[in-house]
Design brief:
Layout lengths: L8 H4 L3 H11 L15 E5 L2 E4 L4 E4 L2 H4 L8 H13 L10 H11 L8 E5 L2 H16 L3 E5 L8 H5 L17 E4 L19 H13 L4 E6 L15 H11 L3 E5 L23 E4 L10 E5 L1 H9 L12 H16 L2 H22 L3 E7 L2 E6 L10 H12 L1 E2 L1 E3 L4 E4 L7 H17 L3
Helix pairs in contact: 4-11, 5-11, 6-10, 12-14, 13-14
The structure holds pyridoxal-5'-phosphate.
């Protein structure tokens, strides 16, 4: 019989090395951004701060994995989890539960009137996967298109429509019918045009290529309203409306993936509001659970009724778990009561002002972009930027100073996603560390 070892690592560990030894021996290392075995090993978090096993403090300008945007351990989320933990953690997903129904009604109240039918899942990837399944079932078609700069997750179906990060390579073949089309990366426009003189001819060109490939009609176009993981790429005004029109012309559904952009992060409640577009299906995840794993898809009566009538079935063991629904319900209360969309604008503007100052002393920064809590900078592509790519060098220097962020587009973009709990003093400290890191790297 196997006898489990009894002395836990937290009682044995003297230093980070000991934790990393466990990582080497007992973890299948699949992290998105790092392949090497390295620290920091994070031990606890509060608000906008995270501490490692040595007690070193970091400003978390990544909001965990973007899921702690309310701030780590927001007191309202902690209280909701504690209460739910004592009452009802998990339920059979064959029955409705009260937390699920309370959340469904509340979430519908945050959306345009026609988006009112919710399904709760566990991650952004599975929400997108189910949204695609619903589009296929509704249209009777199987083909799906997505911009070449987007990210929709790493399950099989969501990875198949993730073209913007390179993480779709080496896992195929996928199910047939996943196509990329040219997305609006205006800063380095693939067809060397400038907005607004270009009149967004990229959408025409992209859809012509798409039409030439599609065999039986598109089931859906899926996109983010701002491409976060693809490099904080903001479509020009009108792009999303043009994509909506392209979907309509083809009888395809528009799925908007608001994992990163929804629930107040960009300064509106939803990323799609800027262009006055309403999707057929919206997917929601990341900070929806205040740090707990939960996602949602929301669609219209027409689509929900149609797929229900055909017997559409979907559920995981933890679908609509009451504890996760209670956390998400508390998140929605916090967003409304603390007016987080307005606060996102204020923090974003404040961070952008400081990034402009940093850029003035570091001409290696070629572009600043983003909205609300998602801000990014892109380095010049001059060969003098050196190897490894500048983003990775600056990130390493910033982490050693105590600032966490993420590196995108193969090291040419840095992304900053400060939680809503971030103070002006913390913004000052973060940009000062960024400034020092750039100087250390000779950039
Ligand atoms: C826009 C977008 N969609 C989907 C996902 C996947 O979400 P998850 O990691 O929860 O599966 C992510 C994750 O970063 C994302 O940024």
């Amino acid at each position: 019989m196997i006898t489990p070892r009894t002395t836990p690592i937290h009682e044995r560990a003297q230093a980070e090395e000991d934790w990393l030894t466990v990582a080497a021996n007992n973890v299948l290392i699949t992290r998105l951004d790092k392949t090497e075995l390295s620290g920091p090993v994070l031990a606890r978090a509060q608000g906008s701060l995270v501490w490692d096993v040595h007690g070193k403090e970091y400003l978390d300008f990544n909001s965990g994995q973007m899921c702690s945007a309310l701030g780590h351990s927001h007191p309202r989320i902690v209280a909701a989890i504690k209460e739910a933990a004592g009452e009802f953690i998990h339920a059979s997903s064959s029955f409705f539960n009260t937390q699920e129904l309370e959340l469904a009604e509340k979430l519908a109240g945050f959306l345009p009137d026609n988006l009112n039918r919710c399904l709760f899942l566990e991650s952004g990837s599975d929400a997108n996967e189910v949204a695609i399944q619903i589009a296929k079932r509704y249209t009777g078609r199987y083909e799906v298109a997505s911009p070449h700069i987007g990210f929709h997750g790493l399950s099989d179906a969501s990875r198949a429509v993730t073209f913007g990060t390179g993480w779709n390579k080496g896992y195929g073949p996928y199910a047939p019918g996943a196509y990329a089309f040219m997305g609006p990366y205006c800063f380095r426009c693939p067809i060397r045009l400038r907005f607004p003189e270009c009149q967004m001819v990229c959408v025409d060109g992209a859809t012509q290529v798409l039409d030439s490939q599609v065999e039986g009609g598109l089931a859906a176009i899926i996109t983010e309203p701002l491409f976060s993981a693809g490099g904080v790429i903001e479509p020009p005004p009108g792009w999303l409306a043009a994509v909506r029109a392209a979907a309509d012309e083809r009888g395809a559904l528009l799925i908007l993936d608001e994992a990163q952009t929804g629930l107040g992060k960009l300064g509106d409640m939803w990323g799609f509001e800027r262009d006055g577009v309403v999707p057929d299906i919206v997917t929601i995840s990341k900070h929806f659970g205040g740090g707990i794993s939960i996602s949602a898809i929301v669609t219209t009566d027409e689509i929900a009724d149609a797929v229900q009538a055909t017997g559409f079935t979907h559920g995981h063991s933890h679908t609509s778990d009451p504890l996760a629904c209670a956390a998400a319900s508390a998140t929605l209360d916090v967003i409304r009561e603390e007016d987080l969309p307005t606060k996102a604008k204020e923090i974003g503007n404040s961070l952008r002002r400081r990034l402009v100052e940093v850029q003035q002393s570091h001409p290696s920064i070629a572009d600043l972009r983003g909205r609300g809590l998602i801000q990014g900078l892109e380095f010049s592509d001059s060969p003098s930027m050196g190897v490894p790519p500048p983003g990775y060098r600056v990130e390493a220097a910033a982490v050693s100073l105590g600032l966490l962020m993420s590196v995108r587009r193969g090291g040419s973009v840095l992304r900053f996603v400060p939680p809503w709990s971030t103070t002006e003093e913390q913004l000052d400290r973060a940009t000062s560390m960024l400034d020092d890191a750039l100087t250390t790297c000779g950039l």
